[in-house]
Amino acid sequence: MEHVNGTPRDQIALFPEAVEDYISADNPVRFLDVFVDSLDTVSLGFQHANLNETGRPAYNPKDLLKLYLYGYLNRIRSSRMLERETKRNLELLWLLKRLTPDHKTISDFRRRNAEALRAVFKQFVLSCSKLELFGAELVAIDSTKFKASNARDRVKDREQLDNTIVRISESIGQYLAQLEESDQREKTTASPSVTKEALQAKIARLHNQKAQLQEARQGLDENGAKYTSLTDPDCRLMKNEHRIAPAYAMQAAVDAKHSLIIDYELTQDAADNNHLSSVAAAAKEMLGVETLTVCADAGYYDTVDLKTCDDQGITTYVSIPAPKIPKHTNVPTPDYYHDRFVYDEATDTYRCPAEQTLGYYCTTDKSDARRIRIYRTEACIACHFRSACTTSPRGRYINRWEHEAVLDRLKQRLASQPEIIKHRKAIIEHIFGTIKKIWGYSALLLRGLANIAGEVALMNLSYNIRRVLNIVGTRKLILALQHT
Known about the structure:
Elements: H1 28-37, H2 41-44, H3 61-73, H4 79-85, H5 90-95, H6 103-112, H7 114-130, E1 138-147, E2 155-157, H8 158-187, H9 196-223, E3 227-229, E4 236-240, E5 243-255, E6 261-267, H10 276-287, E7 292-296, H11 303-311, E8 314-318, E9 342-344, E10 349-351, E11 357-365, E12 371-376, H12 386-389, E13 398-401, H13 404-416, H14 419-438, H15 449-472, H16 474-482
């Protein structure tokens, strides 16, 4: 018995005469071809969609879009690797009709068409909506962080910038001294250990670095920021995978029916609060519905944002964060948390766990424009449970926002349907795991918020395409697209 052997390399083989014969009918590249050809690249805003009458002809943006979609679906993001694949990959030979653009052309397309790529993402979402792939009943909202193309030690605060500028100034002084010494050696005809030209090049490079750092230092003074990123000025320090690193955040809204991304928002904010209403409203608009139910974790709990959602017809299920208790006192104890005080709307009073009544005391305005009504009682002075309730010498105070009814309704919904919050993880979190861990897209290749927008658009679009291909199938999806 022998092992399975291949065909001898010198044996003549009859390959199919046409590249078409190599691509099966259910190959995903056939869908990419039909989908991209159906797009109006002029209205979407792609560069070179309209050709000039003079000059060198440009590549059709549809061909470059097909190349990138194929690349992201097959875990190939690098423009140089995509260039290489166009010369040896049969599927790309078929898809691009044997076009082989160079890596600079490929890279420029992604960088210069960020807004158009986002428009393509929305176009595909609308196509999914027509195919009734969205339930439009429950949407999960969450965020993930993408590592920026900026090393951690390239993030400097004022003190670090000042110290680096001083060190560079000292180095410049040392090189100038060596340059002067080199001049003296030339007069004595002694051969210098370092040439004059090499010293001058080092000095010029240090002067350039010093000028960049001084400009960054001036920028900190002008915008009042705490630090600056020298490689990618747009990125921010964020907690990402249990460490603080330069990154960008992406807020995403995902439909519960098939876990498809409805919309997303690319931000520089490390925190999730203040993003719930904007992402939910965008998802509601994309789905074209009058009302929508969204769920999110405790990071999105922001009273003003919840009120905005309520005004827009968006029903929220957001986990309520645990109360912040001073560690040095551990007061109040759990039995005397804020939620243990029962509000009576008829009398506008609170009833505390010790069966005392807290009446209206005064109103104050917060810095975020919220009006807060404050309630208190004189019974705290002689209360036996005071040490477990408050450390204030004036007794316990209860704050009530003027729109507290919005939060009360949220608590009632969470109590009556706790399974919605539990279902949130199953809807959305595996998407981030697929994109970042399985596909390996946890780090961004480009720099600058405007440039990485195209990169993130391709990630999300590729995920949706792969998901829909798995759900519907290539042939059925092509037929559905041709009839819409």
